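B., you asked whether I could sanity-check this one before it goes into the benchmark set. Here's the sequence:
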Amino acid sequence: MKFSLEHCKSINQNLLPIPGLLLAPYIETLKEVAEMGDYSVSESSINVPFDEDIVRKVENLIAEKVTDELQYVLLVGIGGSNLGTKAVYEALPQEMFRSRTLLCIDTIIDARLHEAQTIITEASTSAEILIISISKSGGTTETIANTEIIIDLAIQKWGSEVLERVVVITDEGSVFADTAQTKGIAVLTLPPIIGGRFSMFTAVGLFPLAALGVSVTELLKGAQEVRRQSLNPDIMVNPAAQSALVAYQCYQHGQMVHDTFVFKPELESLGKWYRQLLGESLGKTVEGEGDTARVGFVPTVSVGSTDLHSVAQLYLGGPARTLTTFIHSNITAHPHTSPAERVFPELAPMIAGKTTTEIMEAILQGTKTAYNNQSLPFMEIVFDDLTPFELGAFMQFKMMEIMYLGRLFGVDAFSQPAVELYKVETKKLLVR
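And here's what the prediction gave me:
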């Protein structure tokens, strides 16, 4: 994975070391956190990729619950409990998953529950399914409702012994964990100080991905490598700090929308994973009055080239209030070639003999040129390939970028007090 600013004409990366001095003390703080290696502060999520105990517990439970018969992983969770797993699952080549299928059940959708019901109904044995319920707090309304419904469907078919096919992942000491254990349900926990959107490298992400056949060792290696880079006090070789500084400066100049523009459809969920990370971490209230007291980017996700035919007019011709991060890969698994002898030779004649890789590369380069011509700021992330290592590197990079952005914005990047506003009102309505 490579982070780059070199193709954007409106961003002068040579100016970064000066504002970068604002981050120097915080870089030292994060280095101290890394040296401690424990979970004593909110930033301790940077230590998770190095925690061998987490990996050992995940591997032990995988050995117990996963056999060659496993076909479906039913992942019940919402937000940080499933976005990372879904992002990795959709980004990687499907042959990596040993013919296993992931079904994410997040919000209350009858159609999705019916899909889970069909899987359970058609399964020959309970060993073909694995139900993973993830709620950090243990009390997420949607997750608990979906969990109860799906387990009930499974019990109707196989009886209470099907609880052996359920795994709960939650905070240490939560009621969810305690209750599950009394029912004989396997439990994996994460340190309470690790927030849901920063929990990708805990059991929250590692267990379901390992069950699907992903090499979590490679995922963690990518994260470990990027943590090393992103603790470097030299801003010019610290990708997370660079990205944060560019984003903060753009925000100060009125770019309040941050668009993650992926040029591979399979990366759309990766963009949505980052959308939560950016929106929930920075959307806070600070000292001030009115709108000045509310800060944070509006995070959006675009897919190239599809969304060039839906929102490019807005991006290129509308208000210049968007910072864009283009994300793409140098690798195309199965390129096709436009034939030299064509049915419609007079239409788009320039595509004759061109591969799909060449066509998409031209569209991407043309888009970046158009952004430069309109003086629109953008950053760029290029994957060498779509592998667990590269995805782990990207996710660690973005989590540390958010920590630096939190410091620059002067907000607590690890809290989400406003999220409770709708949860409180929802529970009031349900108890009537």
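One thing to flag: The chain has a mean pLDDT of 95. Otherwise nothing jumped out at me.
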